[in-house]
């Protein structure tokens, strides 16, 4: 059952999918094929696991729908695990240990390793939708991460690499205590990356609006709102915005650490 699109019963046509899975390289996961994953601690929630180490990621991404009474009070994260939650739609209270952060659409909370993330739907009986992330934190001596919460509507939009119709927002501080960041990249219709990137960092990207044609490992692939894209280390990547709406996605990126040899 494709629960996201409420598709049940017999197919109307030949079975088909836009999913592309290239383990340890890249993946496109559209909403139509998503299934529910039961995870202890999540009550009245539909949880879908997206990128994982099985796909080649060093992080785990999830889509979570909190229904009426939806919550996780058991706590998410752990001693060495940092977590991040972004509200795609709705209203929730996210807590970092005992401190509550009421979040609406565009709101987010980062919890460093050792701080427990809790979630509660507060959307007056309506569902809320979240993008959730976790990763093993890479400690370095002399630096620490800290709790961060804000809403993207308060963040500066920086012209991206000399282009005024492509903007970047950094959701977390550029401090060495942080081994990752979350960003939102937004392209006006017709805008694109300035070049095809090839870099060691990985991304897990959720498309928030619009549509694009995206280059993943030199294949041009149509993508649109609701799609999830995993980009592994070194995968060539770039996109054009197509259609009438701004093409925008939230994505994680590891940073501020050397690599082991
Ligand atoms: O920050 C980034 O690496 C970003 N520009 N990558 C991407 O959009 N695929
Ligand atoms: Mn990139």
Automatic annotation (TrEMBL):
Keyword Hydrolase listed: yes
One Gene Ontology MF term: ureidoglycine aminohydrolase activity
Keyword terms of this UniProt record: Hydrolase
Lineage top rank: taxon: Bacteria
Record SUPFAM superfamilies: RmlC-like cupins
Domain Cupin type-2: residue ranges: 185-248
Record Gene3D superfamilies: Jelly Rolls
InterPro entries: Cupin_2, RmlC-like_jellyroll, RmlC_Cupin_sf, UGHY, UGlyAH_cupin_C, UGlyAH_cupin_N
Protein name as it appears in the record: (S)-ureidoglycine aminohydrolase
